[in-house]
Amino acid sequence: MNVIDNFCSRRGPHLLVALLALAAAPLTAAEVAWNFEPSQTSVHWTLDTALHTVHGTFQLKSGIIRFDPVTGSASGALVINAASGESGSEARDKRMHASIIESRKYAEIVFSPERVEGAVAPQGVSNVRVHGKFKLMNVDHELTLPVTLDASPGRLVATAKFSVPYIQWGLKNPSLLFLRVNDHVDVDLRAAGSAAH
After folding, report:
1. Distance (Å) of CA 31 to CA 22, 74, 148
2. pLDDT digits over 64-86, tens only?
3. CA atoms within 13 A on the CB side of 144
4. Does the pTM exceed 0.70?
């Protein structure tokens, strides 16, 4: 008796048919998916200090987002390469990677969307709120992003500006004796992608 026959005899043929149908079917008929391209995506961050403003960047490692415009449910992830973070100062970046974000130990920063609030037009500009989890140093934090979507046939550009309260989330305070920094980092994201097939 082969594996399928054995399964059917023990569990019943109706259950097997139902499982096979579920596996073969798409998640929802209306769902769309977008692959975001690292070369077409920019992640800029800004940190204000008592003396000056620090500007820096991170690089997207990978990104695919699935979205059901009927239910608003979303899945997938935007994955940032933590080791790619830089601010233009070798000494400052070395300290950031070694003692603030610990990028050797926590190699990825991830945003995983769960729900989209607001109507998404199939073409043109839409303003929505995306609820999800922001994983930093392997800890998930609830975060809602105000996102502008600009859709055209087969293409999508998503832009968002938001703040990350890194001190509140448990990261070390980078302030020094004579240099105080803000307790949050402002992030400016622009991600461009194409329809996934």
Report:
1. 15, 9, 19
2. 999 999 999 999 999 999 999 99
3. 6
4. yes
